[in-house]
Amino acid sequence: MTIQQSWASEIYLNGRLIRKVGILSANPNEVKAYDPWTMPFLLPVDQDTQVVLAIRYVLQPGVLYSKIYDSKNPVLHIRIKNFETSVYDLQELVWRLKSQDVFRFGIFIILFILYFALYIFYPYQKASLYFSLYAFLRTVTHIVWLKSFNEPWVENKFYLLNITEDTSQISYLFMLMALYSLLEQKRGWIYWTLIAFGIICVFLNVWPYELGSGVGFYVFMNFINLESTRISFLAVKEKRRGAWIIAGGTISCLFFWAIYLLFLRLNLPNQYFVDIIFELATLSIPIAISIYLALNLAFISRSLKQKLIDIEDLSQKAVAQEKEKQQILASALRSQMNPHFIFNSLNSIQHYIHSYQREAAESYLSGFAILIRQILDNSAKSVIPLSDELNTIEGYLKLEKARFGERLTYEIIVDENLDIENILVPSMLIQPYIENAILHGLTPKPQGGKITIQLKQSPEVIICIIKDNGIGRQKAIELKKRKKTSNKSYGMSITQTRLGILNQNSDFPVSVNITDLFDEKNEPSGTQIEILMPVDERF
After folding, report:
1. Are residues 302 and 393 both part of a single domain?
2. CA gap 513, 367 in Å, rounded
3. Which of 275, 339, 381, 482 is 20 to 30 A off residue 194, Cα-Cα?
4. Is residue 344 part of a domain?
């Protein structure tokens, strides 16, 4: 025997109490209605035996009843059949309902994760957020719906069923919002009317029994489906990319929804077929939206990939142009070094001529010509072998020695392990520092002085040390201020600019350290310049 009821009861067989269903009491506040929901009970009777079955019942005061989703609220429904058949029918019913809801739960939880992930990936598309909320509320709907079937206490069923209807209707509102956003449709009076109508339907669901929930289930949801179809076809008419996919989903939803409502009215015995039609109606739009979003995401990904390729091409062109610009600038700066040095050398030649030192002038001019040829050759190159740089430096020092005589001595010390033929250095980088030391350190000193150039190699860098025993930087600055000369020394400023360009285009920067030297009396005794150049050809 199976029982469905909406009260608390006692069942008597031939005057003998055989089952209590719910809580009966003389006190109305203690009465609890209980629905065993087709749970089979053993009725101890023999076949072909006439028996008297009596029911004593009482309704629970204040209980609300609902017809949401065509729910049954039988006062008493008893079916008597053999026990094996009752158990089989119950198992089949439980399997059908649970399998449906587990299937729906699985589908909508996957859709929730998918839509929310799409929103996280691309937050500018608000439709993904709305769809994720739609899928989440549909998940809640099916969880609570399954709970309502397993809930035996009648007073709780009304609230569980209303929660399912509320979450279902709110989810349809989010679906409508998502479609409007996704299809880029203007939100007019139809949209706002449906939003307001959906909110009203949520409150109507508390209207007892069938009227309130019927408005939401049969009227509101049909309007939502019709409006979804309308705006999707508007988007197709506006030739929006992929809108035909959603239009197909809305048409499919309308078709299967109409068939489902018809079958509900016909009360078909084959519930499996009705369930399949409901699933097709429920999932048509979400599946269409998933396909649309997948295609849209693929299009966005392809567009972004193409833009990244374009940006990379532009970036490479910009880098190449900047490098070319820096090379041109570096070449121009090297060219500026030549007239600066030539000017100083011509002054020396002029000095010899004015002093009537013909042989000295010819010797100087011969050395000057050789040096000019070396400078012209080196100026065309950004880097040169260290041996060429040393030849230029020695040629320059010979000319300065010829000019200053005994007031200038110099020494070039090269580490014997240094491969000067194969190591490359920036052209005309060391000479300006030597020239500056002679001009500002040794020249103002009456007795002259000595300059030492030492080259050695550490594991990672080449070290060039330029040391003079001149007057020191501080005294040179003071002398320059007292002379108030308008002449500007461009050599060092040009060299500093060149260093900036070299370091900008290299992973191995050139560094320059300047140290002031002092004697035992803490008096200035010269300057030491240390140039660190990496053992690398990338300048």
Report:
1. no
2. 31
3. 275
4. no
Q: In which band, very low, low, confident or very high, does the pLDDT at 538 lie, cut at 50, 70 and 90?
A: very low
Token pair for 109: 């939880």
Give 484-535 pLDDT, tens digit per residue: 554 555 556 667 777 777 777 666 678 889 999 988 888 888 999 999 888 7
Strand partners, 20: 10
Looking at the structure of the chain, the number of domains it has is 3
- At 522 the three-state DSSP class reads coil
Report the pLDDT averaged over residues 203-216: 70
Question: What contacts 175, CB < 8 A, 6 or more positions away?
Answer: 130, 131, 134, 224, 228, 285
For 56, other C-beta atoms within 10 Å of its C-beta total: 12
Give this prediction's pTM: 0.55
Looking at the domain assignment, is residue 356 inside a domain?
Answer: no
Does residue 361 lie in a domain region? no
Cα(49)–Cα(42) distance, integer angstroms: 16
pLDDT confidence of residue 485: 54
**Alpha-carbon torsion (444, 445, 446, 451), positive or negative:** negative
Q: For position 282, which CATH number holds? A: 1.20.1070
Domain residue limits at 49: 2-63
Structure tokens at 435: 């020239």
Asked if residue 99 and residue 47 are part of one domain, the reply reads no
Element containing residue 525 per DSSP (H, E):
strand 524-534
pLDDT score, position 451: 92
Give yes or no: residues 44 and 88 share one domain: no
Q: Which helix (H) or strand (E) holds 410?
A: strand 408-414
Q: Cα separation of 517 and 450, whole Å? A: 14
Strand order in the sheet with 449-457: 408-414, 449-457, 461-468, 524-534, 511-518
The domain that holds 515 is classified in CATH as 3.30.565.10
